[in-house]
């Protein structure tokens, strides 16, 4: 059975799948990233995991994978197949596409984790049918994927879509990126959790606890939540003005709050709109499978483009 390898590499764990031509997840697996053993061990772990997936395909589906797609965090040079920088993995300029290609003997597509998840959400998830979309996952940080005509824009230097580093509160909270007042310091799940922990006096409180307290009507939680929603709306109106997307898709841990987030967020963005066209703001649909599904799509796209090149030449 024809299939490709899909790998979604995170800071602590890797999710993987063998994906059929129709997008079916034929086999799923997980492994620890092993970052505690250092960056070289992480790379070797990825290569070994990919080789094990190839072997599984041969054993269970009668043939090896035709291609592989890999999503990784940090700064990614997709054109040259290089993981340029990932602080949580200790990477700098890792030629991951070439390393995987040599290990597997097939073409490999390398992508940024958020853009790869955004590709899946835009093409087969919450943005299906939209020619232009913005995907914004709200997790430990905030990133973004700009979808255009079935693909995702990487930018000239591989950093397009980094909405989390739009400054929404000039002179505000310092951000590890070097700026002050970045969106992710106010509206990420991590930032909401920190603010709620300080407000309620519980060091272990997180964003989910804050959302539950908001739903219960706790005034301190409502205040924390409103500040985060207002910051997020300020960031989204900037992105909306620049990109004019057909749909805005919100994912990540904070989106699990459902209408506790989406109802005030839609209203906050609506209040900020002047000449812009207000697009639907919808929750992501694919959950933690988005990265694997997107990696699979990248691999199939790579095969299609290779086939077209062979035909035309």
Describe the fold and architecture.
The chain has nine helices and 13 strands. The protein has a five-stranded mixed sheet, with helices on both faces. The chain folds into two domains: 3-116 and 288-312, Nucleotidyltransferase, domain 5 (2-Layer Sandwich); 129-285, Nucleotidyltransferase, domain 5, CATH 3.30.420. α3 (113-124) packs across α9 (290-312) and α5 (189-200) runs antiparallel to α7 (219-243). It has 313 residues and is an alpha/beta fold. It has helices at residues 39-61, 96-104, 113-124, 184-187, 189-200, 207-215, 219-243, 259-272, 290-312, and strands at 3-9, 13-20, 25-32, 68-72, 75-77, 82-86, 91-94, 108-112, 132-137, 145-148, 151-153, 247-251, 281-283. The chain is globular and about 60 Å long.
Q: Helices, strands, pairings?
A:
Layout: E1 3-9, E2 13-20, E3 25-32, H1 39-61, E4 68-72, E5 75-77, E6 82-86, E7 91-94, H2 96-104, E8 108-112, H3 113-124, E9 132-137, E10 145-148, E11 151-153, H4 184-187, H5 189-200, H6 207-215, H7 219-243, E12 247-251, H8 259-272, E13 281-283, H9 290-312
Parallel strand pairs: 1-4, 4-8, 9-12, 12-13
Antiparallel strand pairs: 1-2, 2-3, 5-6, 6-7, 9-10, 10-11
């Amino acid at each position: 059975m024809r299939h490709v390898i899909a790998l979604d590499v995170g800071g602590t764990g890797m999710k993987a799948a063998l994906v059929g031509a129709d997008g079916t997840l034929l086999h799923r697996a997980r492994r620890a990233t092993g970052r505690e053993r250092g960056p070289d061990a992480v790379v070797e772990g990825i290569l070994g995991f990919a080789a094990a997936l190839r072997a599984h395909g041969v054993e269970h589906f009668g043939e090896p994978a035709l291609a592989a797609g890999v999503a990784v965090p940090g700064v990614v040079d997709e054109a040259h197949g290089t993981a340029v920088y990932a602080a949580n993995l200790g990477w700098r300029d890792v030629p991951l596409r070439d390393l995987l290609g040599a290990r597997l003997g097939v073409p490999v597509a390398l992508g940024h984790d958020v853009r790869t998840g955004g590709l899946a959400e835009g093409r087969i998830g919450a943005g299906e049918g939209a020619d232009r979309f913005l995907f914004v996952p709200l997790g430990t940080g905030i990133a973004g994927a700009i979808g255009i005509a079935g693909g995702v824009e990487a930018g000239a230097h591989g950093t397009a879509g980094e909405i989390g580093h739009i400054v929404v509160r000039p002179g505000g909270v310092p951000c590890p990126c070097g700026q002050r007042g970045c969106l992710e310091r106010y509206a990420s799940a991590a930032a909401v959790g920190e603010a709620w922990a300080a407000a309620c006096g519980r060091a272990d409180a997180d964003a989910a606890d804050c959302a539950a307290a908001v739903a219960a009507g706790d005034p301190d939680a409502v205040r924390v939540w409103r500040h985060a929603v207002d910051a997020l709306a300020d960031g989204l109106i900037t992105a909306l003005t620049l990109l004019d997307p057909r749909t805005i898709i919100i994912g990540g841990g904070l989106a699990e709050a459902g209408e506790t987030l989406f109802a005030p967020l839609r209203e906050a963005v609506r209040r900020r709109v002047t000449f812009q066209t207000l697009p639907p703001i919808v929750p992501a649909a694919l959950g933690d499978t988005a990265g694997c599904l997107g990696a699979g799509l990248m691999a199939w796209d790579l095969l299609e483009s290779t086939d077209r090149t062979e035909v035309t030449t």
